[in-house]
From TrEMBL:
Residues 17-157 form the NADPH-dependent FMN reductase-like domain. Coiled coil: none annotated. InterPro entries: Flavoprotein-like_sf (IPR029039), FMN_Rdtase-like_dom (IPR005025). GO terms for molecular function: oxidoreductase activity. This is Multimeric flavodoxin WrbA. It comes from the Bacteria.
Length: 202
């Protein structure tokens, strides 16, 4: 069990709470898998917060990103979930990535970027193609700012092209998604524990 390892999930749905959201559902399911391994943590739907445009850690009055940022920094694992729109991550996901860009200039006491000891998992849902493309974008961006990506560290679901069924409308979670989720989560926890015990050199 890894009670000392924590996670924080950011869902980048375009739908504000309490509207049902496939991204929110996938993020919650990943959180449940993490909980089975003793990893606890919180979550946020980014669209519910006023995240101002910019690439600074704090964009000033009215900016609610600093509170979310602190939760990211406090967690060992970031779970980043986005829907697919026009084959791309949501605009909310892009906004969050842009705000994480500020961490490139932040370092710890040993001069390492402060996200070097953090792990990132990615989740993507959509009833159109684009999951692999989006995962590639997110993996590269998250790795750029310092997150480490575990082996097979993504979970995605694509519905049938040109149909309207959403992930949240499925009667049950597909076995392939469940299996990918289990693999991604166990790898992320293992990696987070390893980085906790021995981080990257300065």
């Amino acid at each position: 069990m890894d009670a000392d390892i924590t996670a924080f999930t950011i869902s980048c749905s375009l739908k504000s709470s309490p509207a049902e959201s496939s991204s929110e559902l996938l993020g919650r399911q990943i959180g449940e898998e993490l909980s089975k391994l003793g990893v606890e943590g919180g979550s946020a739907r980014a669209v519910d917060h006023e995240i101002l445009a910019g690439v600074e850690a704090d964009m000033g009055e009215g900016d609610e990103w600093p509170a979310l940022r602190q939760k990211v920094l406090d967690a060992d694992i970031l779970v980043f979930v986005t829907p697919t729109w026009m084959g791309q991550p949501s605009s909310i996901a892009q906004r969050v990535l842009e705000r994480l860009d500020a961490e490139l200039s932040e370092t710890d006491d040993e001069g390492r970027p402060i996200l070097f000891d953090k792990v990132a998992l990615v989740g993507v849902v959509g009833n159109e193609d684009g999951a692999h493309h989006i995962v590639g974008i997110l993996f590269q961006a998250l790795n750029d700012v310092g997150f480490t990506i575990p082996a097979q560290g993504c979970v995605y679901w694509n519905g049938e092209a040109m149909q309207t069924t959403d992930y949240k409308d499925l009667d049950a979670t597909p076995e392939a998604v469940s299996s990918a989720m289990s693999t991604a989560v166990s790898g992320a926890v293992h990696l987070a524990r390893s980085l906790r015990n021995q981080g990257y050199p300065a």
